[in-house]
Amino acid sequence: MEKDNISPHVRPSDVEYDKEADLEVREVFKKDIDGGVRFRTVSWQRAAVVFLKIQFAMSILAVPGALATLGAVGGAISIVGWGALNTYTAVVLGDFHNRHPECHTLADMMGLLWGRLGRALVGAQILVAQVLITAAGIVTISTAFNALSEHGACTVAFSAVAAVLITGCSSIRTFSRLGWLTWAGFITFFIAVFVFVVAVTQQDRPAAAPRTGDFDLGWASIAYPTFIAGITASANIFISCSGSSMYLPVISEMRRPKEYRKAALVAGILVVSLYLTFSLVTYRWCGIWLSTPAFGSAGTLFKKISYGIALPGLVIGVGIYQHVAAKLVFVWTLRDSKHLQSNSMVHWSTWLGLNLLLGALGFIVAEAVPILNYL
Questions:
Q1: What's the CA angle centered on 209, arms 205 and 215, to 5 degrees?
Q2: Which of 65, 201, 263, 274 is least enclosed, having the fewest CB within 10 Å?
Q3: In whole angstroms, what is the distance from residue 236 CA to residue 65 CA?
Q4: Hey, is 265 helix, strand or coil?
Q5: Quick check: 75 and 230 in contact, CB under 8 A?
Q6: Span between the terminal Cα atoms of the chain, in Å
Q7: Are the C-beta atoms of residues 135 and 126 closer than 8 Å to each other?
């Protein structure tokens, strides 16, 4: 079973010190496992794709709304500035992890600083956040099903289907195997957003704008919002690409954790580029007339097309977040036991049970919290 806390590693001074061997011993998952589960199989390229999918999600469609408050110039500065800060944060977290490889998540890092209390508090925060993200993803996917079927079934039924799909995806045990699905998720979601952005440039007017007569698009290069409106819009941009703490469990499953920096930097540059390009183009053609959900800004037909293409990306993206939450509790429960990397009944029942529990909690929250409909 897990130890109560994670203590800073202190090497003895009276023996010859092998730094690489010392770091390897302290890794959560071991490389040399006979007949067990090999978690340490993720290349830096596959890690970069996982990071990219963590950041490139439905939140990108909320950024043009922030630009409507900040203006094109202010919005672009916020995207680049927050994106750079989040990428820098990811690099700092990765460097800390590589010096303390026993830290599987941000909660373990806080355990080094604040002991059991810090670890428990941050761990609880991560779990609550992940359940809310899962719930929001269930709402989004059920909205997609409703759009495609023209409300052909009860929303609760679509939510249940979404929860099952997300849980099935999150139950894949290793990031290496989940990485193959992540490629498909990123590509389909990229195509969906690309189709949406091209579609809005081909319309005479945004779908949410008045159907007849003159109207003000509301586009501005420089806007002058109030402090509250401006800081809220800027914070929305920050939150949309602030998933860098979710990178940490992936490092623990990389073949060569020292290559993490390359993956984080590549993902950071691509995320900022995609957010900047898609958001500025959407804002230029939709202005303040953005529908909720955002795919509706392209009209009914292209909303269906975009949702249809995006569905795999939506399921896989939310599945990654639920996977991270399940892996956190899984490692806490089985750390330093023989069951962590064995195909035992304890291993499988713990892993599948955690995923089912988190999926059920996400479904309950999605149906019980009305404000999630706005996400």
A1: 80
A2: 201
A3: 9
A4: helix
A5: no
A6: 38
A7: no
Token pair 């009914």 in the structure block, residue: 300
Q: Under 8 Å CB-to-CB from 368, ≥6 apart: which residues? A: none
From residue 108, how far is each of 4, 19, 104, 222, 324 by CA, in Å? 11, 21, 6, 43, 14
Q: From first to last of its 375 residues, what are the pLDDT tens digits of the chain?
A: 444 555 555 555 444 456 777 777 778 888 877 777 888 899 999 999 999 999 988 788 888 889 999 999 999 999 999 999 999 999 999 999 999 999 999 999 999 888 889 999 999 999 999 999 999 999 989 988 988 888 767 788 999 999 999 999 999 999 988 888 899 999 999 999 999 999 999 888 888 888 888 888 888 999 999 999 999 999 999 988 888 889 999 999 999 999 999 999 999 999 999 999 999 999 999 988 888 677 888 888 998 999 999 999 999 999 999 999 999 999 999 988 889 888 899 999 999 999 999 999 999 999 888 766 555
Amino acid at 335: R
Neighbours of 122 (CB within 10 A): 20
Q: How far apart are CA 348 and CA 344, in angstroms?
A: 6
Cis bond upstream, residue 293 (ω within 30): yes
DSSP line for 180-209: HHHHHHHHHHHHHHHHHHHHHHTSSS-TTS
- Around Cβ 20, how many Cβ atoms within 10 Å? 8
297, β-bridge pairs: none
Cβ atoms 306, 189 nearer than 8 A:
no
